[in-house]
Amino acid sequence: MERVAIIGVSQTKYTQNNPLTFAELVYQVTTEALEDAGITIQDIDNVVSVSSDFWDGRTISSMAISDASGAYGKDITTVEGDGTFGALYGLMRTLSGSFNTTLVVAHHKGTESNMKGITNTAFDPLVERRLGLDAISSAALQARRYMTKYGLKEEQFALVSVKNHGNAMRNPLALFPMEITVEDVMNSRKIADPLKLLDCSPVTDGAAAIILATEHVAKKLVPPKKCVWVKGVGHCSDAFRLGDRDLADTRALTAAAKRAYSLAGIQDPCRELDLAEVYDAFSYMEPLWLEGLGIAPEGMACEYLERGKFDFHGQLPVNPSGGRISTHPVQVAGLSELVECALQLRGEAGDRQVEGARTALAHGINGMCGQAHCVWILGK
To answer: Cα–Cα distance between 59 and 182 in angstroms, integer?
Structure first.
């Protein structure tokens, strides 16, 4: 099977109440990704957009950005969900033999959306939806289950917020770079027990794009230093209903990670990875997902956090970008992780550059409480 490389990337500065339209955001990152790769839209065979009718507030939302993404006269398709899944579909189309280059673009304007109302519709309409469950309240249930199963404390989750908001201070594109303490997190307003305001990610607007190319085409279009190679990808979904799964059991993520590691030839991720961008919409998610990824033993990730293993200068820097807890454009989230990993591996991450980075992990989720997971391994 032919290898595939990411040859161009772009992302906006992440803001709130961005005055640009969806199409303007998409045009910006499309243009910049093409410039980054040093190619034109004529070099792109097909386009994958990551958008959602619910979040965009219109039907067939991808139609509103098809021209802006240069899709006129090309094959365009849409994925609703996290950007890692949109990129996965772009990868599959590139590997299909039908296309040599694929532009994957994602956009999100959370400040024009009703998060509670939209995420409530993700639940079963007969029972769970009527309980008022949404992304935050269901996450609170998962956090409490995780705490109960392993005897964890809220203060341990607060360390994630402190670390990642601090990392965001090195990232000029992040929405909320902040120097905060565990006490600041603990004293912030309660949202849904045990989650407090600083345990939760902010409503965010923004867009991102990547360009994928098969090996023989990538080598013709761009210099070798621009190529970041896809080493492995895995994805897996768990049961839809919350009651049909143990919310502290990361079996779907574990399965996805094993597939990605197997393809990439990774046996010890904590030692063989140089950085990881892990989906952390809520503070408790980072340690929970690190355990599912096999980077920390079950119930031990919080202890590793306390030891500083996942700090910027620790054994394995986790979320050097500042993570989703600092910047969370929902549809874009995973694609922004892939952009970050590509920049890190190209040595172009600026003040947040992880020294000597050669292998990176990006992780995204779909569905409430991590129903589905997608894991990418990228390398130089």
So the answer is: 43
| 209 pLDDT higher than 70 | yes
pTM, two decimal places: 0.97
Do 228 and 344 contact (CB within 8 A), yes or no?
no
pLDDT tens for each residue of 224-277? 999 999 999 999 999 999 999 999 999 999 999 999 999 999 999 999 999 999
At CA 131, angle to CA 126 and CA 135, rounded to 5? 105
Of the candidates 61, 103, 67, which has an alpha carbon nearest to the alpha carbon of residue 80? 61
Residue written as token pair 């200068």: 313
pLDDT at 57: 86
CB-CB neighbours of 45 under 10 Å? 18
Give the residue extent of every domain in the chain. Answer: 4-114+204-225
DSSP states along 287-348: HHHHHHTTSS-TTTHHHHHHHTTTSTTSSS-B-TT--TTT---TTTHHHHHHHHHHHHHTT-
Q: DSSP string of 143-188?
A: HHHHHHHHT--HHHHHHHHHHHHHHGGG-TT-S------HHHHHHS
- Token pair, residue 21, equals 């339209």
Q: Give all strands of the β-sheet with 372-379 in edge-to-edge order.
A: 75-79, 46-50, 101-109, 205-214, 4-11, 228-237, 372-379, 359-366, 275-277
CA dist., res. 369 & res. 294, Å (int): 18
> Where does the chain show beta strands of DSSP type E?
4-11, 46-50, 75-79, 101-109, 190-192, 195-196, 205-214, 228-237, 275-277, 359-366, 372-379
Architecture of domain 4-114+204-225: 3-Layer(aba) Sandwich (3.40)
| Residue that has been written with the tokens 């990868």 in this structure | 91
Vertex 334: Cα angle to 333 and 335 (nearest 5): 95
Q: Which amino acid is at 332?
A: V
- What is the C-alpha separation between 298 and 243, in angstroms, rounded? 21
Segment 128-157 mean pLDDT: 96
Q: What are phi and psi for residue 295, nearest 5 degrees? A: -85, -25
- Rounded Cα distance, 176 and 201, in Å: 9
